[in-house]
Specification:
The chain is of the alpha+beta class and 306 residues long. The protein folds into two domains: 193 residues, Jelly Rolls (Sandwich), CATH 2.60.120.10; 93 residues, Homeodomain-like (Arc Repressor Mutant, subunit A, Orthogonal Bundle). 43% of the residues lie in helices and 19% in strands. The chain has a six-stranded antiparallel beta sheet with strand order 3-4-11-6-9-12, with no helix packed on it. Strands 2-1-5 form a three-stranded antiparallel beta sheet, with no helix packed on it. The longest helix has 22 residues.
Length: 306
């Protein structure tokens, strides 16, 4: 089993996928000893500290399936394009397509499943030849990113529970094969939810606009209309993506822009507050001190001096 990683010249080189082993940040098993050579990697990734992610790589002959259970601001690069990877979503990396996770935020939690594509004429997971062709064709046709349903999460949990049980060896092998096949079928069924990504794309666009233009009036009514979402759903979407409700996220964008202006320009504090949409310089100073523990002028003196 090999993973191929690109070097500085853009040439892909092979290295053993045995690097996917248990560690403080990952629980990874190989189901081949349990009668499933088609599943060389099954695991859970749990990052408690920020990380820079991986370099682009491919897995020859393997389809990699990732399910994000928890994590804010995760992004995934696939065939050169960068995509958000949100909780409740699946990423499917097909063989020979360069991909990587761009960053590991705090408290990232993901499930991982690799499926080894059978060679021509070979069967997979104890299926018949016809069933094998159907399964592999459906897996190879999966979209790169889509929203999973609750059955997928339950299927991952079920496979873990089956693996952890120490019942009769033959019974355990049969149950593992059934649970792994059940997971793949749930992933295939869930791929029909791809249309729901449009809502997440719209949210990403709004978040980008808020960061670029924090001075605008981003009312809850406006955001609800843009996303066709109720107020509770809007708040839940923002919290899932940014960790903050809409108003608090907008405030964080305005304060970030204020810090940049204080550090790089000689604009008056009142002018900065006005340009960024604060109702008064006093309100701006209060919010700034609450966020930094410093007044805007103290911040400017310290950071311009640097």
């Amino acid at each position: 089993m090999l993973a191929v990683q690109s070097n500085e010249t853009g040439v892909f080189q092979s290295h053993p996928a045995s690097e996917y082993t248990c560690s403080t940040e990952a629980t990874v098993v190989n189901l081949a000893p349990d009668g499933l050579p088609d599943v060389p990697v099954f695991g859970e990734l749990h990052y408690t500290r920020k990380g820079s992610g991986t370099t682009p790589h491919v897995h020859p002959g393997m389809i990699e399936i990732l399910y994000c259970r928890r994590g804010a601001d995760v992004s995934f690069r696939y065939s050169g394009d960068r995509h958000p990877f949100l909780p409740g979503e699946m990423i499917v990396a097909q063989p020979d397509i360069p991909h990587c996770i761009c960053n590991y935020p705090n408290n990232l939690l993901m499930d991982m499943f690799w499926f080894r594509l059978p060679r021509p004429g070979r069967r997979a997971m104890g299926l018949t030849a016809v069933e094998t062709r159907w399964l592999t064709s459906r897996l190879k046709a999966l979209p790169m990113r889509f929203t999973a349903d609750g059955e997928v999460r339950n299927a991952f949990r079920r496979l873990w529970q089956t693996y952890s049980n120490r019942q009769n060896r033959v019974e355990r092998r049969l149950l593992l094969r059934e649970a792994a096949l059940h997971l793949l079928l749930r992933v295939i069924d869930s791929s029909a939810n791809g249309i729901r990504i449009r809502l997440d794309v719209a949210l990403e666009e709004i978040i980008g606009e808020m960061r670029t233009h924090p001075e605008k009036t981003w009312s809850v009514d406006l955001l609800m209309r843009r996303l066709s979402a109720s107020a509770p759903k809007l708040t839940a979407m923002f919290k899932r993506r940014t960790g903050l409700p809409p108003h608090a996220f907008l405030m964080s964008c305005r304060l970030a822009a204020a810090k940049e202006a204080l550090s790089t320009t000689s604009q008056r504090v009142g002018a900065i507050a006005y340009k960024l949409g604060f109702p008064s310089s006093q309100h701006f100073a209060t919010q700034f001190r609450r966020d930094t523990g410093m007044t805007p002028l103290d911040w400017r003196c310290r950071h311009q001096a640097q």
